[in-house]
Amino acid sequence: MSEPPIVADRSVRLAWAADTDAIGAVQARAWTASYGSLLPPALLADVDAPSFAAAWREAVTRPPSARHRVLVALEAGRVVGFAATAPSEDPDAQPADGEIVAFHVDPAAFGEGHGSRLLAAVADTLRADGFTRARIWLVVGDDALRGFLEPAGWAPDSAHRTLDLTGDGSATLRQVRLHTSLSDESPDSGAAS
């Protein structure tokens, strides 16, 4: 009798349209956990998984370019994290600068290696798309994500910005930019070990 095929219980792949409801739910839970103390209560009340899912459905099914990608981390076929990559649109960006525009792991799945697998896949994807450096904007106060990225070779590059969340300046969010080299010669190559 032959052995059944080995199926990866944990993996990362490009997102499919069918994943977008789960991506929206992960984003809503991650935002509540990560930014709950940083966002005004009225804005936190607007965190809505279906709205996030609709935006991700558009990103997955009609990306702005071939270098805009959404990846999902899976456990037993269930989405437990996601990341989105794109060319950097920062004013000081070079053509070889890619950006992680979203990176979230479901808080219920923290510490299980999904973030490390997802970050490694992001680095591989950015390299395959011809980028040699990656950037990410972090919310000031998101110490968990920063503490995850810095040991993996990411460092602040002195850029910062303030986002106006309401359009009238009544609620703002400060961000700092981190970067890493994606060259194969770098010690960490942008991925956690």
From TrEMBL:
Annotated CDD domains: NAT_SF
- From what superkingdom does this record's organism come? Bacteria
Pfam families in the record? Acetyltransf_1 (PF00583)
Q: Which UniProt keywords apply?
A: Acyltransferase, Transferase
Domain N-acetyltransferase, which positions? 10-179
The protein's GO terms of the molecular function aspect are:
acyltransferase activity, transferring groups other than amino-acyl groups
Asked if the keyword Transferase belongs to this entry, the reply reads yes
Cross-referenced PANTHER family: AMINOALKYLPHOSPHONATE N-ACETYLTRANSFERASE-RELATED-RELATED
**What is this protein called in UniProt?**
GNAT superfamily N-acetyltransferase
Please give the organism: Jiangella mangrovi
